[in-house]
Amino acid sequence: MSEPFQRARTDQQREQRSHDILATTRTMLTGRRVADISLNEIARQVGLAKSNVLRYFGSREAILLVLLAQEYDAWVDEVTAEMPFGSNPDPIERAAGVLATTAAARPLLCELLTAAPTVLEHNVTPEEVIGFKLAVQASMRQLLASLNTQLGPWDSHRQGIFLGSLHAIVTGNWALAHPSPALSEAMNREPSIQGLPNGVEIDTREALATLITGLQTRHPNGSAK
Predict the structure, then answer these.
(1) What span, in angstroms and rounded, lies between the C-alpha atoms of 215 and 225?
(2) For residue 29, what are the domain limits?
(3) Which end of the chain is more exposed for a tag (fewer CB within 10 A), N or C?
(4) pTM for the model
(5) How many Å apart are CA 40 and CA 50, to the nearest integer?
């Protein structure tokens, strides 16, 4: 018999319950897609009624946004730690390699980042979006600072282009590397339908190296440096 529900009454109890919801959701996403996870299932797995989960997070998407902010922060910490010690002496190749390798090794980051603009940033409150955006922007500033030590300083235009393109490359390649069941079957039946030619890590590395090379040699208005 399950234990009767007890309301969290102290700040410590509420913080623990919030942590439990996030940890349970993180575990549920192992090897699964965002679309496969429902708020009802999260509530069942954590042992709470759906209404009680909603006391801590306003929606399924709000839970996933917090997880994405945590994953993004952990990824940037890893990039920052590894960037100065890359084996490739070419700073562009080293930066592209570290970014691609660390991103590909974080499936939860890639899955959540891919879903962020079309799913996770919907069905949430402005306050939840503000908290998410401010947390991720702080991580982005740390990421740019790490890159600047390798590549030299970029102006704000280059920084904005890089971050937008970085996310597009990572999420685009992740989506291509994880096709739907129907597309997987179609590729098995029809060899001319192909996914990523070289795999997610290699294609991401090459796309990022090309992006960084372009930013190092071109002004945002299209003229050469």
Answers:
(1) 9
(2) 9-57
(3) N
(4) 0.88
(5) 6
